[in-house]
Amino acid sequence: MTSEEIVVIGAGAAGLMAAIAAGRSGAKVLVLEKNKKAGVKILMSGGSRCNITHDCDNIGIIKAFGPRGKFLHSALASFGTRDTVAFFEAAGVPTKVEETGKVFPISNRAHHVLDALIAESVNAGARISLLEPCRGLEVRGENLVVITPEREIEARAVILTTGGKSFPGCGTTGDGYALASMFGHQIIPTRPALVPLALRETWVAQLAGMTMGDVGLALEENGDLRGKTRGSNLFTHFGVSGPAPLNLTRFPASWECPEGLSLLIDFLPWLTLGEVDEWLRQETNSRGRQLVSVVMSDRLPRGLADRLLVETGMEPDRRAAGLSREQRLTLAKKIKNLRLGIQRTLGFEKAEVTSGGVDLREVDSRSMQSLIIPSLYFAGEILDLDGPIGGFNFQAAWSTGWLAGIKASAKLATMRP
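The chain above was modelled as a monomer; its predicted structure follows.
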């Protein structure tokens, strides 16, 4: 039996930040990681560029998370968006803000983010033990015993940062949920979020590779609106991907049985239906010899224009001069509201985050401390928190990890002789 002051389980974004915060506060910290290297998911994030945060204030982060965002007030007050940028800048990772508000390292290299986190962990005195998974936790008085295949470690505090189930190839296979539930914590049912969608219409494969920078998307279930979003959309060989469709998967719906789910696409969201109809009227009247699809290609990709004509029952070689008022309005409606059937999501294997997790009502948002086991803390994706694309989820990881590390260390300080 060995002993430690703080054991962090999981060397991902939240875990490494928790180790840094606790170590800088004077605690002796051991980080356990079951993979052969730390931060595997960090390396994959943002197309291997790592979108570390979003260029907004802390209130912007809270709003992005919706109703559960209020849980982040204390965490963001402890370590907010500006603190994130300052931390990485000081650690030798200069950052940049892109037009979308996403903050990336100037190098566009995720490994620079990870290298900085590991270096700062070591500088703070934390030790990282790789290939050492946690197999169990036991209560021993006011302490916890961490059980691994190699040893038992008695710890004054344990910070659980094992992540969710997204990208299980990175090792995020939901191990922490079982550990939390051992002590009576409720786990909000999990599902993949920020995940591409497979559609029922096979013809979308003809548009594979087509990206549109600004579309409006809506999710309907049996005719009822479940959510709306707007942004970039990518057609793929199986359906749709990109920020807008991925953000749509955060909305609650019957994702496990999606027979009643529909995706509605507005290809010109900055125009009303009347404005689209008037645009088509003017252009088809003045360009009667041209194909309707050519006229439409002023604002839409040509391949999409051809397909929308087919969806309205017209041939792609239809001339503009022959377009009736009724046909024009039907086409305008299709541009503004193309309905496609959702077959499924691509699951946890392709999901960027996990929706669900440890019930926030059982965690003290002021400290990330368990309200059931005082020596247990949580941070990161294991919690029932999921935000949209754009660096929001990383910010939640940094903030909750930092707060957990600070508070766990502060508690230890009061217990030392």
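The longest strand covers residues 224-235.
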